[in-house]
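Hi P.,

Sorry for the delay on this. The queue was packed all week, but I finally got your sequence through. Input first:
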Amino acid sequence: MLCSFCQYQGVIPRTIVKLFDEIYAAPDSTEFTMSVSHFEIYCEKVRDLLNPAQNDLKIRESRGGSEGYTIPDLTEIFCGDVQQVFDVIALGKTHRATSPTLMNAESSRSHSILQIRVTQKVGAGPNTGRVLKGK
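Then the structure:
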């Protein structure tokens, strides 16, 4: 169930809370890992917001097409709870390309993408050893 604070939040905070609600509700025999990346597309360049020195990354189609796309060398931070994900988002926001406009002093000049990768490993029952991945 979403916390009362989250009812006033946007889709990303609500989604993160819901993901962890589902993880906490899963059987103890099921293992989860979650990693988060945060990047922006600005002036047709991909920039890692968690490591801004990496400012011209390439988007590649993943092998076999199973994950759609991949960005080699993109920083991934493993997170174990909601607050850690929010901390990664806050860190990324500090590195976004912004510039003042007449309407907004901190107007974004880029498209920001938060990428969450969840891996689930089933440890008991008929599906033992089964690994599911989502991005």
